[in-house]
Amino acid sequence: MKSLLTVCLVLSCIILKAQTANSHKADIVIYGGTSSAIVAAVKAKQLGHSVLVVSPAKHLGGVSSSGLGFTDSGNSKLIGGLSKTFYQKVYDYYQNSKAWNWQSKEAFHGKGQGTSAIDQESKTMWVFEPHVAEHVFDTWVTDNDINVLKDEWLDRNKPIKKNGTAIQSFYTLSGKKIEGQIFIDATYEGDLMAAAGVSYHVGREANSVYNETYNGIQKGVYQHHHNFKKLKISPYIIPKQPESGLVAKVSNQAPGKNGDGDHRVEAYCFRLCLTKEPKNKIPITKPEGYNPKDYELLGRVYKKHWKETFKKFDAIPNLKTDVNNHGPFSMDNIGMNYAYPEASYEERKAIIEEHRRYQEGLLYFTTTDARVPKKIREEMQKWGYAKDEFTDNGGFPHQLYVREARRMIGDYVMTEHNVMGQKDTNASIGIGSYHLDSHNTQRYVTSKGHVENEGDVGVKPPHPYKIDKGTILPKASECSNLIVPVCVSSSHIAYGSIRMEPVFMILGESASEIASLALKHQINVQDVDYTELKPLLLKSGQILENK
Question: Given a cut of 90, is residue 52 above it in pLDDT?
């Protein structure tokens, strides 16, 4: 009997130890490994709180460390706080001659997006290599002794434990129990937000919902070069013969009525890091499952003497590029991401893999297919994936550029009226300045029998605008201890301006300031007094208005 009790006691201790090892607790729990998540974690730690970052990604920094090195800065003078510090740390990194492996610092003459690549006055750098960004984020985490759990995914099949409107804990797929007092969902998808029962929207609202102009379906809107307007290309397998069927990458669905809302999501892509340096180049090869018919439209585009293939091969240091979408048929995999925001992890994985195959195939087509002009083929053959980037993934980016997924619906919703200067706020937590920018959402057949893209919008605000505190807060009735600095409370078209990486970092820092005050006073995040918050943001170097 005594020995049985001893065995039971030992087993109980083993079980308790295992449960303890599998349980993680912090004042502030941040779900996500994005730039916003890391900045939020750094700020929370600086404010004296225990912090836990639970990152589905194995690599920190989101798209900022996964190819988006040509920063969408807008007015860089209005980027403050830790967001600015990130770009200063990038600047500092490149002051070391050892950072310049493939070209000299003096030989780099890259430009930034609306700013200089290197701003000597503010000691910031707005273009950078992916591995440099990841190094900055990793060093930040190490220097601040932040606990990060990588490759840990919210178990979406297990309900989140809540006490009334407050999240208490959630589980990861590996079985880890995550407990906290305040939670921040800084993912691109908003999975924790959704699991917590917070209202959200996927797709485009009708213009009538918020009395907007640039939301909803936007047929015939040509504000960039990402359309077929002047090309007049047939979408049919046998040109001008509808009975032959549609070529690949063209929808057979009616596009809808202008201004109406729909389920469609703006296109995603990977931001590719390519190089011409022979010693640092992985050749472009034929991807598995490659079918040249998938790029039939591109062949027809070239037949119309289109000459802008390399327009968005933006230069970053060390003879590399950040390759973005440009033109009617390019890196954006239009129409292939509609299911992504709400999809299961396995379904998302399949969508991500399809996007990778599409872009790998696009490069291969451009280097090999006879329909591509010889001059362009020969130029593309000089390029390859950078060997010293994404070294565990064959030189291919880890993170798909999820431009938009879920968007929270809080008590305060940012709309184009905020961005276009028609509505102000007295509770600013940061400044935005980028265009109302949406990528295409569908490729359809016009009434005249031509192929066309729809959804691309680019409208410049008259001046920078304030982002309201409520933009990152759910309704108190739904969740009282959650802050959402990425999948913010915004209409689709306003999100097109807010969704830039510097702004996500600004909002991540503000999220932790709000979390800190909520902890200090033991109140709901919605009840944090802005008169107490504002001076703290200003003290941190945040910029709250355009002076």
Answer: yes
